[in-house]
Amino acid sequence: MSERAGFQAPPRWWTPWVRWITRFELALGAVALVIMFVLVLVQAAQRYLPVGGWSWTGELSRFSLVWLTFTVAGVLVTTDSHIALQLVDSLKKPLVVRAVRVFACATVAVIGVGFAVEAWELVSTQGDLRSPSLRMPLAVLYFFPFLGFVSTAVRGAVAAVVFAVRGVPAAAEPTEVHA
């Protein structure tokens, strides 16, 4: 079995969980995107209607942008779609490429843990505060970024281990680490 084939074959018990979690995160992101799109259209239509505008539409669309951004962050790590310097992948020394990719993924994981801790702090301490228009507890606002940061941290750590153990796949082929 080639190194590339081994890279694409995660443990069998892991794959269904990763797929389910990825689909869940993408579904949350899609719902946030649809909410944001519809509410921006409502805001635009309100300008031409004789009734007063609803202030909560702008607030909820901004919250949806936050939720969209952070709930799919872990998926970007798994599919290797996050911002990266691909110049490193074209280096001729596989050991250097592997070391840089492991370091990058480990850094993503550490930063994800730090942000998850801070997001949880906001979730646990901001429950009494409410948003101005919706009167939504701010703990709800911060819960979705918390989930996204946990996902990012776990997937970054798994990607670092996969790259360290199995190596980095060829740069020309799409990468999926099944984190």
Molecular structure report:
By secondary structure, this protein is mostly helical. It has one domain (3-166). Helix content is 68%, strand content 0%. The chain contains six helices and no strands. The chain has helices at residues 3-7, 14-46, 55-71, 73-78, 94-125, 138-166. Helix 2 (14-46) packs antiparallel against helix 3 (55-71), helix 3 (55-71) packs parallel to helix 6 (138-166) and helix 5 runs antiparallel to helix 6 (138-166). The longest helix is centred in the N-terminal third of the chain and has 33 residues, at 14-46. The protein is elongated. The chain starts with a helix and ends in a 13-residue tail after the last helix. Mean pLDDT is 84; it is low at 1-7.
Please tag this protein with its features.
mainly alpha; 0% strand; elongated; disordered N terminus; 179 residues; 6 helices
Gap between N and C termini: 21 Å
Uncertain runs with pLDDT below 50, 5 residues or more? 1-7
Binned, the helix content reads: 55-70%
Specify the structural class. Answer: mainly alpha
Average pLDDT figure: 84
